Each structure stands twice: as C-alpha cells, then as structure tokens.
What we know:
The chain has helices spanning 17-28, 46-52, 70-80, 91-103, 117-120, 124-137, 149-157, 207-220, 235-244, 260-264, 281-288, 319-331, 333-350, 353-368; strands at residues 4-10, 34-40, 56-59, 85-89, 109-113, 143-146, 165-167, 194-198, 225-229, 251-255, 269-272, 293-296, 312-314. By secondary structure, it is an alpha/beta fold.
Amino acid sequence: MRSLKILHIIGGGEFGGAEKHILNLAGAVDLQAVELTVCCLFSAPFVEIAARAGIKALAVPMRSKADFAVIRKLSGLIQSGEFDLVHTHGVRANLLGRLAARQAGKKKVITTVHSLLERDYQGMALRYVNSLAERATRSLTGHFIAVSQGLKDRLVAGGIPAQSITVIYNGILLDGLRPVDAAEADLTSREAPLVGIVARLHAVKGHRYFIEAAREILLQRPATRFLIVGDGPYRPVLEKLAGSMGVSDKVVFTGFVEDVYSLMAELDLLVISSLWEGFGLTAIEALALGVPVVATEVGGLPEVVQHGETGLLAPPADAAALAKSIVWMLEHPQEGREMAAKGGDMVRRKFTAEEMARRTVNLYRKVVGEDDV
C-alpha cells in the first residue's frame, strides 16, 4: 500500500486552533502512510512555524481578499504535486481550495470544520458573504471532519448530511508537554494566584467577560494576577476595556507566545470564556499539564470539561458566573487538582495526536478509495 500525498490548504495568517491542529497531526502521522504538505494563503506566520516544525510548507499568498487568480496557482500546485487528496481548513481556504481541486481534476476533497462560521465574523455583511461562499462550494467537498459532536450536530442542522461528517477530536502531542505532577503541585504556595486565558484576541473568545470577571475577583482576592495570552485584532479594544475598569495593573497582555506550554504550566487556573468553541484544544492542553480549567458551556467544550469532574462550566457571556467559578476553584485547590488529574487521564486516553492521526489517515483512505491507492 503506497503512501498518500495530501495537500492541506489553510489561510495561515494567524496561529490558532486550526494551525495547531495541523502541527499536531503532522507530528503524529505515520510517514509511511502519508506525505503531508501545507500550503498557506498568507506569507506569515504559519508557513514559517510549520517549516520550523519540519513540515513541508509553502505559501501561495493572496494579493487581496478577492484575489481569485490564486485558484489557478493552487490548481497548478495540485497537479504538479500529484496530490491524492486536498484537505481544507477555514472559509477562505475552503472556497479557493475546493475550486482549485476541481480545476485540477481532483474530486477528492476533505474539509475540517473547526468552528461555527457565523461566530467567526463580526457584522451581518461579512457573515452573509462568507456563508454564501461556503455554501456555494460545499458540494465540492466529499467528506467533512467535525472536531466535536456538538459541532457535527450544528453542521447537520445546517444541511450537511450526517453520513458525510466524521467526528475526529483534536489531539495533542503528549511528548511535547511537560505535565505537572498533580500530587506535587501546590496552588496555595503563591502569594499571587495566576489566572490565564490563552486564545486569539477575537470577540468570539469572550475576553471582555474574562476582564469583567477579573474586576469582580479582585474585589474579593486583590492579590490575583491575570494573563491574556495571544494576539489578534481585538487587542486595542480589550486593552482599553481593562483600563476603563481599572484593572490594567493586574491584567497583563503577553502578545503571541510560541512556547505557550511553558507559560501555561505556570498558571494556577486556565479560563476559557468563549461564546462558542468548536472543541476546546486549549482545555486538553491545560489538563494534560495538570492545570485546572474553568470554561463556558458552549459547543464542544462540555465534551472535554465535564462539570465537577474534569473542571467547572459556566454560562457564556456571564461575567458574574464566570467570576464565581474562578473564585471557587482558587479557594478549593485540592478539588481543582483532582479535577485536573482526572482530566489529564481522559486526555491521555481519548485526545492524543496519535489517535487523531490514525483516524484521519483511515478517513483519507476511505475517501480516496482503496482501489485508487
């Protein structure tokens, strides 16, 4: 059985969950089974990050959002590379990648859906245009991967047949982590508890509620410090909000951090304040590191953060409820450690990159067809 040649197409203009997904997949895939190449539609930053990780990566940059000349370039790449299958990630990559695959005469396309389209774009006009583009080319995808059951349910409700969607959970490379031994960790040893959120700075991540919760928590626990890890277009708005609430001296914006695991391992608590989350990759990373998690009860997060078992859940867009859960976790460090330990065990059973890669390669072979391999 020969190796399959797979071309992943992604925007790559930021470093978020979809980009992490590809890094983890490439790091765990059987190289005898799959030869993986990543093509980015932006020249930075992901193409450089992927190349440093040892992945064959290249960029076919768009000159503008309406640069449809890229389709011809992608089509040429697909043909010259003799790829068996095109795997797309994100609305822009879906549109251009699907059309390029069709132009190249390749009908084998897989799309991984990482989030809800309507949550990724602010403003009715943007949502409408991107939804139209997605639906116009949806039929060119032979099969979809949803990163959680909750996301699959939403896709089915949106008109995609259930039999055309496979749930494959995101997985992480455990060898790349340095888990904290829950038995040795001591969350009470610090004078200033450290609470963090790790996410791109986008409205859907609910940072404003994290900042509002921070103000409430500081009234009860004034020594607490807060980290906002990541970068994105929403940063100026959030920095202004922190200033207007008088918490700028307690809330630190770190910007993009490449070695995020080392920083995450220093947290006493990870918070996910998202208004929607397709899966919750950051949650499994934190649990594998032994860091307790408080998350919002949206999307695929409850499939990872099981309330009272592997973490605490709070309703979305509710700063008071989020603050209450954070305070409870900080005041009950032993219970938090036990939840994190149980969550870490679950991650090692269910959410590894190796399991994700195995199931993805099986799907590749099914979509391509054994007769073609």
